[in-house]
Amino acid sequence: MSETSVAVPPVAVADRSGVRVPGFVYPVAGFVVTVFLWWLATSVLGLAHPVVLPPPQDVVRGFNENREFVLEGMLVTTLETLVGFVISSIAAFLIGLVLASSTVLERMFSPLLVAVNAVPKIAFGPMLVAWLGWGQPPIQFMIFVMCFFPVVLSTVTGLTRTPAELAEMARSLDASRSKMFLKVRLPAALPQVFVGLKLALPLAAVGAIIGEFQAGDAERPGLGSIIVQTLGQGESPTAFAAFVLIATATIAMYYVLVGLERLLLPWVRATTER
To answer: Which residue pairs from 3-12 have beta carbons closer than 8 angstroms and sit at least 24 positions apart in sequence?
Structure first.
């Protein structure tokens, strides 16, 4: 797993002519091109039935007709995602610390973690209500299992791959075990930990939607519950508006996390080429 495999926030770049283009121009251009192709395929070429893939203007109409409903659902799902992501990340980081501290423990439990991660998470769906009832417990459980493995893996990888020159320098300075961890191993591992966090955050949103599909609260529905409800009523434009909103919220949360990484780890950007 490498830092280059994860998307980075837009920054100003220079094209071949040497003109610096503001970083936000590229994602905006990508969005415009995507919406145009979507409109072309649905409204002009008729490649998809409106029930299967409604055109952009119908999605906007569906959003406007149910604005308060879907925005409240967006707030519910966003809060669920954030709470589940934080809880799962803390638990996964602590377990990663334990596994990284002992080769025996890592060898004992790593295969089990891989096995659990290999199980399709949707398979838990039919059992969630029987285990945990309706509402937040099953939703948070689904978010937890979706986020857990990437953070554990990145934590263990970061803590067990300390650069040899840093470890050797700390030993030459007669650093204690605790100082070795706090001053060398943990800072060196944090970039890798953030890779896992950036991978886990979109998965948290997926987990929230899956949990709402299976056990959403009818009194305070999130976007997953809204998607199920509106599709069942044949209101696919509103359902697609919910899809767009969860994607938008996830992008916003992702770049907040990237900004937090830049704030907490300024040396990473200063010492890397990009």
So the answer is: 3/191, 3/192, 3/195, 3/272, 4/274, 5/195, 6/195, 6/198, 6/199, 7/198, 7/254, 8/258, 8/274, 9/255, 9/258, 9/259, 9/262
Is residue 23 domain-resident? no
User: Within a 10 A sphere around the Cβ of 125, how many other Cβ atoms?
Assistant: 16
pLDDT band at 5 (very low <50, low <70, confident <90, very high): very low
pTM: 0.81
At 129, list the tokens.
């209500």
The answer to whether position 43 is within a domain reads no
Is the alpha carbon torsion for 121, 123, 125, 128 positive or negative? Answer: negative
Backbone angles phi, psi at 21, to 5 degrees: -110, 130
Both tokens of 114, joined, read 């891989």
State the pLDDT at residue 195: 92
Q: What's the rounded Cα separation, in Å, for the pair 67 and 71? A: 6
CATH number, domain containing residue 222:
1.10.3720.10
Give me the number of domains the chain comprises.
1
Q: What angle do CA 104, 110, 116 make, to 5 degrees?
A: 150
Domain with 67, as residue range(s), is 56-271
